Amino acid sequence: MLGIESIILYILLGSFVGVAAGLFGIGGGGIIVPALTMIFFMQEMPSENMMHMALGTSMATIVVTSISSLRAHHKKGGVLWDVFKMLAPGIIIGTFLATFLASILSSKHLAIFFSIFMAYVSIQMFLNKKPKPSRKIAGPKLQFTAGTIIGAISAMVSIGGGSLTVPYLIWQNVDIRKAIGTSAAVGFPIAVSGTLGFIVNGWENTDLEHYVFGFVSLPAFFFIALFSYLTAPIGVKLAHTLPVDTVKKYFACLLMFLCIKMLYSFI
After folding, report:
1. I need a labelling partner for 102 at 20 to 30 A (CA). Which of 108, 159, 167, 201 fits?
2. How deeply is 206 buried, as exposed, middle or buried, from its count of CB atoms within 10 A (0-12, 13-18, 19+)?
3. Of 211, 207, 215, the residue nearest 223 (C-alpha)
């Protein structure tokens, strides 16, 4: 049975993720994965599948948030669809194949990989470092290769790819707004391909009686996706009133704390 405590935690997590997504323009995987592992620990879920479930469920929620973000950026003309078309094939292949690797790694190893990557993201966010533009838009071969790498890493840590795609596009002299918009578009194939991969690789874990589909917890997906979608506009409004650069530093510290706490749970 799905307890009321779990539902409340999913709602609170989804609400927080929505505000953070609107405020910082992120997909929320960096918050969802460590937070879900803590909730799953409370639910006494088997530890061997805990990290896989957190990654798969997080990826599924990004499908919903990426659609909303993509539509908003497209309306403002902020998506470079020509670049997206070059990146997408590599993104889809890299993301899907990486879920096979993620499925055979232990939860402990996945937690270590996730924590190291999110530590890098947190430091970059805290220091507010941006790459210096130095090149023109790359050709199809480089974009395909870059897309494959971005997709693979995104699947391993269950993110929408923004922390990788945005700096990569800025490096190619793409305007920051269009880099963010194109990254939002890239987040959709990452999320869809990643979710399908975690469902396929976790098929033996399916237990519809307990609302588990592959490596996706359906109740967690539903409540987190719904409430993150509903609260994202609050974050957008806050972005125009709060000192975002200062808040980003606090947020980076929170991400680091969550990752350390999650890693400690597996050691």
Report:
1. 167
2. middle
3. 211
Query: Shortest CA distance to 91 belongs to which of 29, 35, 162?
Result: 162
Q: pTM of the prediction?
A: 0.86
pLDDT digits (tens, 9 = 90+) for 119-153: 888 888 788 776 677 778 888 999 999 999 999 99
Tell me the CB-side half-sphere exposure of residue 246, using CA atoms within 13 A. Answer: 4
Tokens 């972005």 -> residue: 239
Q: Residue 216 has what DSSP assignment? A: E
Going by C-alpha positions, the residue among 42, 36, 29 that lies closest to residue 12 is 36
Q: List all residues 6 or more positions away from 175 whose beta carbon is below 8 Å from its beta carbon.
A: none
Residue 213 DSSP symbol: E
Secondary structure of residue 217 in the 3-state scheme: strand
Domain that holds residue 69: 4-266
